[in-house]
Amino acid sequence: MQILLNGESRDCVAGDLAALIDELGLASARVATALDGDFVAVRARGSAALRPGSSVEIVGPMQGG
Questions:
Q1: For residue 34, is it within any domain?
Q2: 37 in a domain, yes or no?
Q3: How many Cα atoms sit within 13 Å of 65 on the Cβ side?
């Protein structure tokens, strides 16, 4: 299905946010996630269903000064 990932169109086979993170190879990474503009906690990712056109944001920690 086609989703928006960090503002870019992308095809995925995952049906939920947890599966998408695994599909992207980020399962062991510490990342924050949002689905259609709403924050999704780690334990809720498996029940956060993706649909065609879903907007997903995945961000990792950044260092800087």
A1: yes
A2: yes
A3: 0
What is the Cα 26 distance to its own chain's centre? Answer: 10
Percent pLDDT > 70 in the chain is 98
The 10 Å CB-count burial string (b at 16+, else e) for 20-51 is bbeebeeeeeeeebebeeeebeeeebeebebe
Confidence of residue 65 (pLDDT cuts 50, 70, 90): low
Amino acid letter, residue 11 = D
Judged by phi (left if over 0) then psi (alpha if -120 to 50, else beta), residue 53 lies in left
Residue 51: inside a domain: yes
